[in-house]
Design brief:
Helices cover 48% and strands 14% of the residues. A two-stranded antiparallel ribbon has the order 1-2. α2 crosses α3 and α2 packs across α4. The termini are close together.
Length: 83
């Protein structure tokens, strides 16, 4: 059995932000986070909540799927290993 988790794609967020001529400060303010947090999200130093990712996607005019990817773990979770 595999385990999946949603992970954001900071490079895509940054590319879309630049495509829309938005600054880190502008987008962060519109989303309700600090510019430092936005930068950390883009650099993937910080994981954003689903709510924040939805807000970022909305501000950039795209769906959540455009800025997220599904990470699939190849190892079973500990709970499943004992099953």
């Amino acid at each position: 059995m595999t385990h999946s988790s949603l992970a954001h794609n900071g490079e895509t967020i940054r590319a879309l932000r630049k495509l829309h001529h938005r600054t880190v400060t502008d987008l962060a303010g519109a989303v309700g986070i600090t510019p430092q947090s936005m930068s950390n999200i883009e650099l993937e130093h910080k994981t954003a909540s689903a709510t924040t990712l939805n807000k970022i996607a909305g501000e950039l005019g795209v769906g959540l799927g455009a800025i997220c990817r599904t990470r699939i773990a190849t190892e079973p979770s500990p709970a499943m290993a004992d099953a």
